[in-house]
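Ticket reopened. Same input as before:
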Amino acid sequence: MTQTATTRALGPKGVSALSEELRLACMRISRRVRFESVDGDLAPHHFSVLARLEDGARTPRRLADIEKVSAPSMTRTVGYLVDAGLVGRHDDPEDGRRVLVELTGEGRAAIEQTRRRRGRWMSERVAELTAQEQATLAEAAAILGRIAAR
Amino acid sequence: MTQTATTRALGPKGVSALSEELRLACMRISRRVRFESVDGDLAPHHFSVLARLEDGARTPRRLADIEKVSAPSMTRTVGYLVDAGLVGRHDDPEDGRRVLVELTGEGRAAIEQTRRRRGRWMSERVAELTAQEQATLAEAAAILGRIAAR
DNA sequence: TATTGTTATACTCTATAACTATA
DNA sequence: TATAGTTATAGAGTATAACAATA
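Engineering reply: fixed in the latest deploy. New output:
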């Protein structure tokens, strides 16, 4: 709640400068991670949908809402994932209009593989930092996580 | 160079966990910033090319190489920006095969406007943090900047 | 002969509108 | 009548191949 006596909150100029620096740093990190790990032919929107299914089956309608794309687009995306064997499509026993999309074992494996590849680039760099720097980043990650969730 | 006696560098597990947390935080921040600031009809690839021209004119060939797209794609993108009045296309007096693409005043204004909009979302959130948190983020931004540049 | 830029053509992802089946 | 999903069709953005102009 209270702040230490030696530090003062930043003024508008300082806030603006820090925000710009942080924003750019985050964008660059994201871009590097994305480029450095080619994701083995799994396009961003395909991976994104797979990840949404990790904690359970979803209808195409719900997936379209979450991913902010149209229903026909999601039909197409799900169709691709079915053909690739990464998800299964089943009729909902409770509502004949509905379809449930669910991860296959292969789909789960694809998610894990993509995550591992992406994590490698970052891990190699974090490992080279001093303990002090790692501690700072751990605190920063928590703060950034809170900011992004708001 | 030397580290404080009270902290120890992270082991492989800790590095991996921290990396994943940081990577996700950076991705989420980037995505939020991108979504929250709609960029006034300026698509990402259009903005990206404009930004490349800030420190001087470039040929379409060079722009295509930098942005990692094909020459025909860049022809199309530059064509759009010319139609929008954001860049100008001029013959290179030194080499008749070449064309030089250059920012117009309107193009410069569009870059500034986009940057301002993007900065606002982040600034609003950074301003609400404690002085301690802001200080942590300032250190983190410097470290992340170094990582991204390597 | 090599390089710069454009045009021709095709593929992918996206969208809106129209259609089918179920509630 | 409303909702879930699909199919039909069109609009961006991208790519490769072929072409014209210049070096």
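Residues 20 and 118 of chain A are 25 Å apart (CA to CA). The longest strand of chain A covers residues 87-91. Please confirm and we'll close it.
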